[in-house]
From TrEMBL:
Transmembrane segments: none
Key words, A-Z: Signal
Entry protein name: Desiccation-related protein PCC13-62
PANTHER family: DESICCATION-LIKE PROTEIN
Pfam family membership, one: Ferritin_2
Organism annotation: Lactuca virosa
Signal sequence range: 1-29
Amino acid sequence: MAPPPSATIGQMITSVFLLLLLLAPVTQNAKSMLPRTDRELLEFSLNLEYLEAEFFLHGSMGRGLDHIQSGLADGGPRPIGARIANLSPMVRNIIMQFAYQEVGHIRAIKSTVPGFSRPLLDLSVKSFAKVINKAFGRHLFPPFNPYANDLNYVLASYIIPYVGLTGYVGANPILKSNTSRKLVAGLLGVESGQDAVIRTLLYERATLIVVPYGITVAEFTHKISKLRNKLGRAGLKDEGLVVPTYLLGRGVLTGNVLAGNTNSLSFGRTPKEILRIVYGSGKEQVPGGFFPKGGNGSIAKSYLKKKKS
């Protein structure tokens, strides 16, 4: 005998309720299914992605992540000193493409792991001038202004994305999940492309004098790469656009449009090395530079706690 209609409806409601209970934890915990190491490494990379996104967005359009996709900033403080750069139409178009690529990277990472809010970033003229002064071991006058023109902006762009690239190379062998490795491979592909474009734009101008300093573009890249090696404290993992003929056994070539080891493989860096560089302090527990209050996420914060203890 068929059950009364009321009983059938009650069973259906109960079944739906139980189904929702079963599905809810999956939805809520989907971003927590990755191994802890994977989650922490992917989240750590957000620090660099936020930095690149804000620099490229402001440089090309004069507005940042809060205007383009505010939810991704997650309430984090607005960058210090970021501004629109005085760029030619071609360079502005390239940088704008980079900007939207970085927005996509943040979106991809935060759709895979919980993530965190945008850390405080210092993208002021003063911040970049400090990097350049430290690279040359003296104060350049007038202070280096990344927003002044095409050449200065591309030189400033040389400072940032490559660090993130080496971070992905370093993280990839440690990742355990196929989901994580697939994401990092996709991120690394585009970050490598950005670095190649930046280096090519500068390589075309390698012998050009950067006004008013009387220093060539090639020398700027050499000094910046040398500084990053020094701050990273992990040996040679960075090279400028022109290298000595004997370096890494490359024979007669001095051109170095792409950086790599003796087998032309990309260099990798650890989170510690990256923090030492972007903080400008050479110490992963001492914030500063582009991150006045340090990076976000469990990895960066763990080093900051060590300083306080």
